[in-house]
């Protein structure tokens, strides 16, 4: 019997459906009818008038697209200005902007882990870091989440001379922080480079939102490389690698996601630069997001995070989807994470705080969370949140 070459996709779709893992795209309306606790717009800067008008101005000045690879026509003065501002903010020698945080991660890991080197990767790392390891020509060793002894053993027992350790500063799903100071000590002892993805730390944690590395006193260290996204706290789009000048020079010469990708769109660069300026002027924004996250965590009956991410473990994917739907019916958009985004049996809601959530919106969100999650015992919202 001749079947269509794509029929197997229907079987896969049915399996997904049966396992409660069907995924659909739900377009947001421009009128924002649901209260957002799902986006990564942690500081509310995606719609900030200063950020939006800087994006529009960049669009008018430089056009809709970057017009080419960074090495050809895709580097404008605006890109250079953004890179200088990012490096100065994070306290690193240099910075290089990419079209996404995903591309920035692929660039660093592949460029620093050629054949004959070792990359030690935390088991909870984001898909972009996992893919980066898959593309790297060096040997990859995955170690349990934040297991310092395992990191040290992997490095100490290696036969390769060069090694890189890759981790996230703030876990994208759990919102927990990596033991960066101790990890850096291990890297120093073992002669390894530390690569830290600050996608969820940058703009939120550390002094003035300068990130978890700055909080750990590691900003600007000559054996630490940082990747950030411009699409979360900065409310724009794009990514960047921040680190020593010679690393950035090496990336410009060899990183395939820079050489073969069109440069970041000027509007995104302009918006990200304006958002960075806002952050410099309003250094408490990140703390405000963490405070809102604390209030949401209390309502959901889970421990307060040291980030803007509040995970609420449900377990079963179908139940997680049902809880997210109940939230939506009551006006709240929350994230719902199921395998393969999270391990089997750990499906969860992922609530993200926003620094600019009004008090009324926060009260409403907390009420909904108590109702949906059946934690009706806790009616008090901490008075610290009055200014949020
Ligand atoms: N790293 C982490 C930890 C992330 O959560 C994300 C985005 N979800 C990325 C990298 C990728 O960033 P971008 O969305 O800018 O590609």
TrEMBL record:
InterPro entries: Aminotrans_II_pyridoxalP_BS (IPR001917), Aminotransferase_I/II_large (IPR004839), AON_synthase_class-II (IPR050087), PyrdxlP-dep_Trfase (IPR015424), PyrdxlP-dep_Trfase_major (IPR015421), PyrdxlP-dep_Trfase_small (IPR015422). The keyword NAD does not apply. GO terms for biological process: antibiotic biosynthetic process; biotin biosynthetic process. Residues 34-369 form the Aminotransferase class I/classII large domain. Transmembrane segments: none annotated. The keyword Transferase applies. It catalyses: 6-carboxyhexanoyl-[ACP] + L-alanine + H(+) = (8S)-8-amino-7-oxononanoate + holo-[ACP] + CO2. Belongs to the class-II pyridoxal-phosphate-dependent aminotransferase family. BioF subfamily. This is 8-amino-7-oxononanoate synthase. The lineage of its organism: Bacteria, Bacillati, Actinomycetota, Actinomycetes, Pseudonocardiales.
